[in-house]
Amino acid sequence: MPHLPSFRVRTRMSGRDADEQHRVSSPLELLFDLTFVVAVAQVASQLAHSVTGGHVLEAGLGAYLMVFFAIWWAWMNFTWFASAYDTDDVFYRILTMVQMAGVLVLAAGVPAAFADQQYLGVTLGYLVMRIGLVAQWIRAGIENPDGRTTAFRYAAGITLVQVGWVLRLLLPPELGVWSFIVLALLDVSVPIWAERTGSTSWHPHHIAERYGLFTIILLGESVSAAIVAVQGSVTEDGVSLPLVVIAVAGLVLLFALWWLYFLQPAGEGLVNHRDRSFIWGYGHYFLFAATAAIGAALEVAVEAGTGHSEIAQVLAGYALAVPVAVFFVLLFVLHVPIVDVVVTHPVPIAAATAVVLLLPLAAPGIGVAMVVVLIALVAALLTALSIAGITRRRAGQSGGENAG
pTM for the complete prediction? Predict the structure, then answer.
């Protein structure tokens, strides 16, 4: 008899074991992540256009941070719920796919949010995602008596805040930023309030893996954005030296950032400090937003470096320098609460951050392409120093054990 694959129509949602061995991301979670590529691509592209159009500080940056919050928060809520309650049965899959559909609706509404400060599409997509998540929490509350109160608190809190997001559409535009701040603070307060009655059984190593995978997606989107910009430039003017320089330096930068992020495993830290997981998890909003912005910045650098944009060279340089500096700083800050030794030492981090933030000032003299090269070299040097530090510590530990 041929071996038929196992398939569960319905499984009781009783909560996963937080100490489950070899827990990894499921195919459904990977598919869920891929739908976010579309939304991230849209928001990064719009950010790049706002920078080259010269209105990033007036409207583009605010729209980017607000829309990216919706993307990040929806992804994060699903990720932590799945870590605790993933049953992978028919009902779970369908409700997860509802959330995926919401991501695509949100992505379709991104251009209007940037161009006209019109958030109807983004809010509708966010609503669809929240409906799917609330249904999951209600199911968890019904089927898992041990976590019932916490699950129902999640469902109630998310629902009430979502009503606020819908009503926000009725407010005048001048209240848009302040109403966003209030509702965003309420949204991120829901898990803190809900888990006062009991923590969910999320898996530390699974969560660390999920965050790592989303980081890879964001870095991959940065590569994609840079390639699209390069293709456009080649189509119009052919291959040029600044274009090649920016393309190569951009890849070096992204490779270095990937290497830096995965030098510091977070799984064991989350095991030992579950009570500090909110700091680590929430802080990734800024790291993720910075990572996605790097893709937009490389697109800006291509346009500025090849003469396709009249944007000031200093501004083009800072479009890349600022998110890279944020990435550097948060690599250290996010891991301090959960690990005993942070592999990225604060002194090199501080020095690299300062140098990166100063480099754009030289753009008028050396050009945008050279600024990108130097930022990439700083990132590569920081990576090399971090690896050397790990090697020295391992050698010291090995020497101490031998001496003992």
Answer: 0.92
